[in-house]
Design brief:
Blueprint lengths: L1 E10 L2 E11 L4 E5 L6 H9 L6 E6 L2 E2 L5 H4 L1 E4 L11 H5 L12 H10 L15 H13 L5 E5 L7 H17 L3 E6 L2 H7 L2 E6 L2 E6 L1 H6 L4 H32 L1
Parallel strand pairs: 3-8, 3-9, 6-7, 7-8
Antiparallel strand pairs: 1-2, 1-4, 4-5, 9-10
């Protein structure tokens, strides 16, 4: 279990997170949701160990890891921009981290992750030959071969749409389920959070507004902010989809 107790974080005397208390059970998928600037990415970086907390404690399986360096925590992150190496092919990107730690995953285990993520036919390709969804799967495979204790994802679906986004969502669910892997996702998209996660953490102005199962968030929002944020964001998404559909229809008519 991952536990955060009374976490506080400030930058330049501006409080970003205040009195954050959170428990995430082993194998859960938790999405951190909230408006821009609310502290979502800061919270992810605190768990990763990329930035230190000003106050409070972080515990993992009962051990205090508040001051444990990032490289010793055994967590791993997939960044929004994938952070792949363009000069290496897909296979070398996937196995890059094993160069210094070859005993973490055997060749058979690497092949299992490649098969799971549908990358077998792309192994000799360079990164610029891949689609966005394929790049995301490579980034997931590269992280999984390092066998992280917790998987952290920063806006993993923001550059994807349609069928590709749904495919990656299913892969994330499958990985979390099959490997009983605690997964924490930062997202700005309520629909993504509500359909992907076991629990959703909604953050507003550095505080936790609500933490619960998706059905609780939808049927019993804890305050007006949660209710309005969810409804407004879903309405914006619906409007954007309608506008895109209308534009595509207009383009088709003009082409004719």
């Amino acid at each position: 279990m991952l536990e955060l107790r009374h976490i506080k974080k400030s930058y330049d005397h501006v409080t970003i997170l205040e009195d954050i208390n959170l428990k995430i059970q082993d194998g859960e998928i938790v999405s951190i949701l909230g408006p821009s600037g609310c502290g979502k990415t800061t919270l992810l970086n605190l768990v990763l160990g990329l930035t230190p907390a000003d106050q409070g404690r972080i515990l993992f399986d009962g051990k205090d890891i508040t001051n444990v360096p990032m490289e010793e925590r055994g967590f791993n992150i997939v960044f929004q921009d994938y952070a792949l190496f363009p000069n290496l092919n897909v296979y070398k990107n996937i196995t890059y981290g094993l160069r210094n730690k070859p005993d973490i995953s055997s060749k058979e285990e690497v092949d299992e992750f490649i098969e799971l993520l549908g990358l077998k036919e792309h192994l000799n390709k360079k990164i610029d030959q891949l689609s966005g969804g394929q790049k995301q799967r490579v980034a997931l495979a590269r992280t999984m071969v390092m066998k992280p204790k917790i998987l952290l994802l920063d806006e993993p679906l923001s550059a994807l749409d349609g069928v590709i986004k749904e495919s990656i969502k299913e892969k994330i669910k499958e990985i979390a389920r099959d490997f009983h892997l605690t997964t924490i996702i930062v997202t700005h998209d309520p629909e993504e959070a509500l359909t992907l996660s076991d629990k959703v953490l909604i953050v507003n102005q550095g505080h936790i507004s609500q933490y619960g199962a998706p059905e609780e968030i939808i049927t019993a929002p804890s305050n007006n902010f949660v209710k309005e944020f969810i409804l407004n964001q879903l309405e914006i998404k619906r409007n954007n989809i309608f506008a895109l559909f209308h534009q595509n229809l207009t383009n088709s008519v003009q082409a004719v």
